[in-house]
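Lab meeting, item 3. Inverse folding demo.
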C-alpha cells in the first residue's frame, strides 16, 4: 500500500508540473495554429504516443462493451471539450489567469462529493479549501475585471465551462465502474476525443491558417506526448485512487506553478497580489498533503 501511495502522489506531482508548463507553451503554439486544430494536433500526437507504447508492451486490448460509458465521458468531456474550451479561452485570457479559472474545480466538486458520494470533508481538507478559495479569489480579482470587454468575457466563460467538463469527468472516473485497467482505455479515449475534435475542425474551420515552424512543432510535441499522452493516463490513474476532493484541491498546484512559468516564459507580471495569492494556495496544498485520513483506493 505504501508503494501505491508513493506512485499515486508521484504521478500527481509530475502531472502538476507538466500541465503547469503546458499553459505558457500552449499560448506560444496558438500563435501559429487555431485553437481547435491545435487541440486536434496534441490529441493525435498523444494517441500515437500511448498506442505505440502499449503496442510494444503488448497491452493493446479491444475495449469491452461495459467500458464504453467511461471511454465516452472521459474522451469527450475531459479530453475533447476540455481542450477545445481552454485553447479557445487562451485566445482572450492570459495563460496564468486561464489556469486559475480552469482549476476552480474543487469548488464545484466538493459539495457534490460530500452530499452524493459520502466523501469526508475533514478539517485539513476544509482548511485547504478555504485557503485555496481565498487565493483563487485574490488571483481572479473580480472587482478589477473588465465586464464590458466582450472578448475577455467570452474567454472567461469558455474556461469556466472547461472546469465544469473536468469536474463531471473526474467524478465519473472516481465512482464509475471500471471493467478494464485504466491505461488500456486511454488510447481509445484519445481516439474518440481526436475524432470528435477533427470532425469539429473540418465543419467549423475547414481552411485553417497554420504557420508550420519549429515553435509549433516543439510546442505540439510537448503538449501531445507529455501533457496529453502521459498526463492523461497518469491523472486517470490518480483520480481512481484518491478522493475527488483531494485530487481537485491538489491540482490547484497547476495554476500556482503555471503563473510562475508564465512569468518566466511569457513575461506575464507576477505582482505582490499574485504572490500573496500563491502563498495562500500553497498553504492550502500543504494542509491537504498533511491530511492523514486520506485513503488510497485499491
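The presenter then showed the designed sequence:
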Amino acid at each position: 500500500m505504501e508503494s501505491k501511495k508513493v506512485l499515486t502522489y508521484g504521478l500527481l506531482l509530475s502531472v502538476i508540473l507538466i500541465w503547469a508548463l503546458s499553459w505558457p507553451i500552449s499560448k506560444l503554439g496558438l500563435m501559429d495554429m487555431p485553437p481547435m486544430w491545435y487541440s486536434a494536433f496534441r490529441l493525435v500526437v498523444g494517441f500515437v504516443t500511448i498506442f505505440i507504447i502499449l503496442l510494444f508492451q503488448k497491452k493493446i486490448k479491444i475495449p469491452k462493451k461495459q467500458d464504453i460509458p467511461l471511454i465516452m465521458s472521459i474522451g469527450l468531456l475531459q479530453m475533447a471539450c476540455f481542450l477545445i474550451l481552454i485553447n479557445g479561452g487562451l485566445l482572450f485570457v492570459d495563460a496564468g489567469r486561464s489556469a486559475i479559472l480552469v482549476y476552480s474545480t474543487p469548488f464545484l466538486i466538493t459539495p457534490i462529493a460530500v452530499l452524493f458520494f459520502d466523501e469526508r470533508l475533514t478539517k485539513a481538507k476544509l482548511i485547504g479549501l478555504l485557503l485555496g478559495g481565498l487565493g483563487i479569489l485574490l488571483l481572479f480579482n473580480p472587482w478589477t475585471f473588465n465586464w464590458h470587454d466582450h472578448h475577455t468575457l467570452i474567454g472567461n466563460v469558455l474556461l469556466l465551462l472547461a472546469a465544469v467538463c473536468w469536474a463531471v469527468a473526474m467524478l465519473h472516473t472516481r465512482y464509475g465502474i471500471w471493467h478494464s485497467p485504466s491505461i488500456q482505455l486511454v488510447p481509445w479515449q484519445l481516439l474518440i476525443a481526436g475524432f470528435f475534435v477533427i470532425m469539429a475542425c473540418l465543419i467549423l474551420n475547414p481552411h485553417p491558417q497554420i504557420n508550420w515552424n519549429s515553435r509549433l512543432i516543439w510546442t505540439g510535441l510537448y503538449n501531445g506526448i507529455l501533457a496529453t499522452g502521459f498526463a492523461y493516463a497518469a491523472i486517470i490513474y490518480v483520480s481512481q485512487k484518491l478522493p475527488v476532493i483531494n485530487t481537485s484541491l491538489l491540482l490547484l498546484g497547476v495554476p500556482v506553478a503555471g503563473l510562475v512559468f508564465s512569468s518566466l516564459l511569457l513575461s506575464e507580471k507576477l505582482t505582490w497580489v499574485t504572490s500573496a495569492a500563491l502563498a495562500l494556495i500553497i498553504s492550502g496544498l500543504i494542509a491537504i498533503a498533511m491530511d492523514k485520513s486520506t485513503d488510497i483506493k485499491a
